[in-house]
Amino acid sequence: MMNDIRNLRTFAALVQCFDLKFDVLSAVDELEEQVGLEFDFQREARSMDRIANSISAYYKARPPVFVPRSIPSLVTRRVLVMQFMEGTPIMQLGDEMARRGINPSGAMAKLAKQNILKSLTEAYGHMILRDGFFQADPHPGNLLIMEEGKVALLDYGQVKEFTNPIRLGYAKLVVAIAAQNPYDIDQSFKELGVVLGKRVESDPKSYMQMASNLFDTKLPPGRTRAGPFGEDALLQKVQVKNFPKDLFFVLRTIQILRGLSVGMEVPLSCVENWKNIAKEALSVAHEEMYGFNIKATGKGFRDPVWERRKRARRLWFLQQMAKELTALIF
């Protein structure tokens, strides 16, 4: 498999030079790191239990998704035994509805699909933005629909953990995209290490569109499908010169969720669903840093890192003014 990765790297470098306007080599770097870890079942058991514990602790008796727990005495590096989850694979959901006398295209089915996607999106908002540790492979084969429309999320071989700066930087990006503020998007891109081939001042609309294409599941108006690498994609006009490898799996997760949204014919914006979670994550970080909650001050949302930089600049300016005044007086 590692030989395949090396061949993929060579091919990616070639395509990136002549055709694809995206930093795909960073994605290959991240994939190479993850492949070596995916077949360690002890690690997978720890990851699965960690996510199960986090969701259970936060949501108590009403988790958005159900995560199986490992059976510790039956886990080795080569064997993983976990709780049994009974449900219908999501790709067979239409057939199961028809079997139960429910019209798969009817209003009841549509509501059920909306609830399924809402639950899955809520779970990913929690994992990515509150925890910074998430299952990075929500493809249909890893999703079971249980009784009463509850969702079971399986397979924790591919997980990703964010550092706090990346988690909070991504939270700021979510807030900026939700507000459709190109200059805050640009600031978040800089903080995360995303580099586009255009300056925000030259084309703010493209900045907003690119951020949405990469990091939101919502389709552009009038579109029934939208992949970031399609022939008519914005990527053909705006190059992504650098894309940090740490964000590759969140990009992949969002594109899979978009595919589910399109396949189930249920419009979904993960940014709209995540913006309050993102603000909460930033508020908690601010409270931990400064000892008070920004919501309680009545001043609205303020970014702790940006505010610290502003205060530092103001302090430096006042110090310089004081020095100059002292020199004039004495």
Automatic annotation (TrEMBL):
Under Pfam families, the record lists: ABC1
The name on file for this protein is: ABC1 atypical kinase-like domain-containing protein
Domain of life of the source:
Eukaryota
SUPFAM superfamilies to which the protein is assigned, alphabetical: Protein kinase-like (PK-like)
Upper classification of the source organism reads: Eukaryota, Viridiplantae, Streptophyta, Embryophyta, Tracheophyta
Which InterPro entries does the record match to this protein?
ABC1_dom (IPR004147), Kinase-like_dom_sf (IPR011009), Mito_struct-func_regulator (IPR051130)
Q: Which residues form the ABC1 atypical kinase-like domain?
A: 2-185
What CDD domains does the database record attribute to this sequence?
ABC1_ADCK3-like
